[in-house]
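ENTRY TYPE: paired fold submission
RECORD: A
CONTENT: sequence, then structure tokens
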Amino acid sequence: MPLLDLFWTMLWFFLFIAWIWLLISIVTDIFRSDDLSGWGKALWILFVIVVPWLGALIYLIARGGSMQERSMRDATERAKAQRQYIQEVASTSGTSSAEELTKLAQLRDSGVITADEFEAQKAKLLA
């Protein structure tokens, strides 16, 4: 197989994958859109399926800007939910480093652990 044929095959394969990705993005955006009615969504889906090249091109021209806005809004909401979840888990996960150091100091002062063990645990907590 000559090198140029391999290049063209890889290029067509890449374009095919990009095309599938574009169609999936468009269909996802159609269903995610709040400003379209059910019939509007059905007509856009039908248009994209029946005449894929023309349907995708017209959809991107007509609704491309709002497609980006919906995508950015969705990403922001997901990041916000993730941040909130992480803060909830972190606040309920247990004690803080200061509380742990206080407990270790009490154990050291009462003689349960040695000063070397205290320093090792302190270094582990602060790391």
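RECORD: B
CONTENT: sequence, then structure tokens
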Amino acid sequence: MNRNRLLIGFAFAIVLAFGASAFVYHAFRQASAAPAPVVTQKIVVADGALPLGTLLDASKLKTISWNASEPMAGMFTKIEDVAGRALITSVSENEPILEGKLASREAGAGLPATIPAGMRAISVAVNDVIGVAGFVTPGTMVDVLVTGVVGGGTQSGNTSNVTRTILENVRVLAAGQKIEQDREGKPQTVPVITLLVAPDDAGKLAMASTQGKIQLALRNTVDVKSTNPGPVLESVLFASGAPPVPEHIAVAPRKVIIAPPPAVPFTVEVISGGKRETKSFPNQ
């Protein structure tokens, strides 16, 4: 009886070992099998670092292999589909050229190609102070402030200077003739700044730069919140302050003096030598 149990246990162990061996063999065979080939396709990339506004041609482009199972939206597979169009953003070497980075073929090259449809580029004269010590460079965002005179005119003399923020979160397209920011962030001293604005804002900026004095306020590029600050009046800014409120002074009630009624004079009848007369004397 014990012998039969041992035989059965031994046979079960043999079967279990055979199954484990078959499983390990199958796993090693799968691991050693050659991976499935990756299907690739050609995509167009930049042959080197290219600045904003560059007009693309075959000498600035090349193709590289790309996994066909991971396509990118707006990518190109032929250089001729990209040639003749300008970049609206700078690209790095081997960076894919995508539809969203290109201007239309009719837009040309340079600064005009970077202006979106419905927007305008307008330039204003600046100096070191207006241009925030040269740190207003292409790609930065600024607010535009203007200082001018308001009131009844110079003849009436009823005038006051006011500073008002007329534009907020405006993109700088160019500093001088440069449309690319210095890679090291160095300031650029230029006489002219070009801003990207809506058509209505272009009129405001033209009026402000010719009839008043403008000032640019540099802001963080990620800060897009509009604050709409109120105007600052010169008469308020330099006023000495509100007049002091007079302290309450207790006033004693006025004493009314009533004058006594006038004294009624008394009269005396005087008879002298047959002559009669009446004389009045004050009543004291």
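NOTES ON RECORD B: Residues 2-32 form the longest helix (31 residues). The radius of gyration is 48 Å.
STATUS: closed
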